[in-house]
């Protein structure tokens, strides 16, 4: 049977079942490749038996502890312990590919991802035209004209989405499609950003960042991009609306919502400025996207570019996983904190998010006489929790604590609170990139490159099993573009002690659910405060791990260090990602350590208005291995070869 016919039959079956059950059912599907569809099916050894609020308990220690009552108590759920076994890792992989925590409602019904320029029909058509070949960058035909700034995408024009489709699959990696009582929705999973299709083989690389995912453009082409306005620099006050479209504020005053069309146009420009392979996860009212990181995460703590995900289960990795679904994929949950975070009345904030909602049931109309919060409550699929996604609510909500932005833990009914996030952490910590092939000549060059790495002083920060010393470097020292380093500074105004629920707490949690404090003091507290830009600091960026650099170009947090195969012409984000050209890992790494090449990259970024809007510079990290520093071209090439060879943890792994 030919591939197009198989897809047609699968699609017909999907639609047929939908018609058969009509408005009575809800069902969904997200792809998850088997081992044969992976380029990196190998895993690191499962050495950790328990995680206890970030402390790794290896298997021999766990055996000793389990022999005494005191030891067993130390590994109990009410101490924050998570038992790591094959079942947890299996659930983690499934969640990585299939769990949305309900974000399909925000993305489809509020943001209108399926109601803008890219429709389900056109996406299905693009998939069919692949004929099973797969692609790392699905090109989808525009269904209608959409203007973004001075660029109009015409009906019929092909849009490079960066969506990945494995060879032999008719489905997009990281997209879960829902049929819900007559409505089609799409939700996103971690695999959308943290798994990628290898262009040569068509296989999936688990844990590799999707370096050409055009997330900002996809949002710009949605019908209600202004639902994400707090992640950009578009200012509602700059687009005053009709006084007849006013909302009653919390203190009983009347305030006009921003002009819908003008503000939507401004919001589209901001998100469309993101480079491919980047995402703006900070709700700080500044456009400052960061590169999507890899999920080769073992011993790579703290997590996020600023290092703000650094405490709690799995040394902050669960906090990072949680942030995606408890903050970034549902902006309605920020309503109660809007005054602190954005200087906006909660009703004005939510009215701005909902006035252009794609689904009528969630669209706020001032003429209705209802408050925006009443509209949300009436349509909320998760009553009893703020926002639209599925959350367990800590007593500190809506205050920030250093484990969460907002006191919310994305969770799945029927399993313990935060279980899926912890399971994904256990799974991610076993991932490693595809093995780098080598021969005698290559091995000798890599050895020489390691010597250059040490002579250049790189090992001073890039040490340990994952080649990071697990520290946050102050922005004054690292010198990179500073906007993202202080993105969480406003959260200090409403800060609670960090805690989580006991790890066996059922979801939804009972009223008397136990919470577990997360110890934080001394040097650890100072590092966390630096990562969040608190306690009078200006923030900083973490020392990233170096495992899998061959899969994660471009480099630095802003994607600014990007060079194509032609190092004379393909410079910076304008000469690579914005031109549809993939950055070359070797040339981009050379730009990281060669001040002449870096200078040309920085100049290329500075010449682009789009890059300036997204605060992409490629500046900072001024640590050189070039002629001025006494390194020959051969030394430099060997150092780059060494960096590209790191495909697994170095040994030995430290024992707690």
TrEMBL record:
Domain of life: Bacteria
Region annotation Disordered: where it falls in the sequence: 277-296
Keyword vocabulary terms for this entry: Heme, Iron, Metal-binding
Domain Cytochrome c: 444-647
PANTHER family hit by this protein: CYTOCHROME C PEROXIDASE-RELATED (PTHR30600)
Name of the protein in its database record: Cytochrome C oxidase Cbb3
Organism: Methylorubrum zatmanii
